[in-house]
Amino acid sequence: MNNQLKISLAGILATVGLWGFLPQSEAKAGQFETTDKVVFTCVSINAAENQYATVPQIVRETRDTSEPGLLGGYPLVKREVIQVSSKPMIVWTATLSSDHPKGAYTPDRRCQAVSTRLTNLAYALGMETFADISQIGVVNHEQVVYVSPDEEPNFDNVVFTLKPGNRDKSEEILTQFKDFGQGTASDEPIIE
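Structure (tokenized):
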């Protein structure tokens, strides 16, 4: 046999031999945990008009429970969207002034921030609970929707600031917001 063939065979045998010593992963029953949760996503609905929408989705996450992750919890192995609402919860159209260094609070930035807040609230409190404890209040001289069972509104519990055109009908906006959280929303989204 030539030397090149001998080296190739030796490499193959060594590799096969090593495989015999490596532990094999086996999928065991109960090794995976699957949970469904509500996630709010921001989508562009009319880029030319700078309009964005907060849309709820149901996401199924599968985690490997055989070993905890480095930072606690279990590693996520699969995430899939199993249902997307056919109607947006909030359509963002107004730019609000802001003292933030990045400037004005545009519809896109409002949508991204509120979608993240709503996802966190749904995860922490459950959809019906956060809808039940939503209220109207004032923070920094602006009318807001906030979530708290008994606290006054503050920067930590604000969900979103009402645009000027919605401040006169804040109770109507709050009712729409609560109805959406409880699954009884009308066909009309909140226009912010």
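The chain has five helices and eight strands. Residues 3-21 form the longest helix (19 residues).
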